[in-house]
Amino acid sequence: MKSSSLEEVRLDGMPPAPRLVEMWRDPVMGFGFVAGSEKPVVVRSVTPGGPSEGKLIAGDELIMINDEAVSSAPRERVIDLV
After folding, report:
1. I want to staple 5 with a disulfide (CB 3.0 to 4.6 A). Which of 1, 32, 60, 64 is the partner?
2. Which helix or strand (DSSP H or E) is residue 19 part of?
3. Per-residue pLDDT tens for 51-75?
């Protein structure tokens, strides 16, 4: 899965620049993060030791998955992509 995510809020109040995050699904842990069902899709938590640790943080917004924009995508589509 390739995912673009927003970094933490900058102190100057400007939105952070998107960053590219690449990770692969672990057969046991999955991707190791929990995302909310709201739009935009926001990472709620990251599993310690999982594929997302050190790549995503709680509060990151997923804006693309595998080159497909997901900021306003239906929940079911986001699940299909992940």
Report:
1. 60
2. strand 18-22
3. 999 999 999 999 999 999 998 888 8
What residue type is assigned to position 69 of the chain? A
- The residue assigned the tokens 């739009």 is 39
Gap between the Cα atoms of 64 and 15, Å rounded: 16
What global pTM score does this model have? 0.74
- DSSP β-ladder status, 18-22 and 68-69: unpaired
The rounded distance, in Å, linking the Cα atoms of 62 and 81 is: 12
The answer to whether 40 and 61 are in contact (CB under 8 A) is yes
Exposure of 7 in the CB half-sphere (CA atoms within 13 A): 10
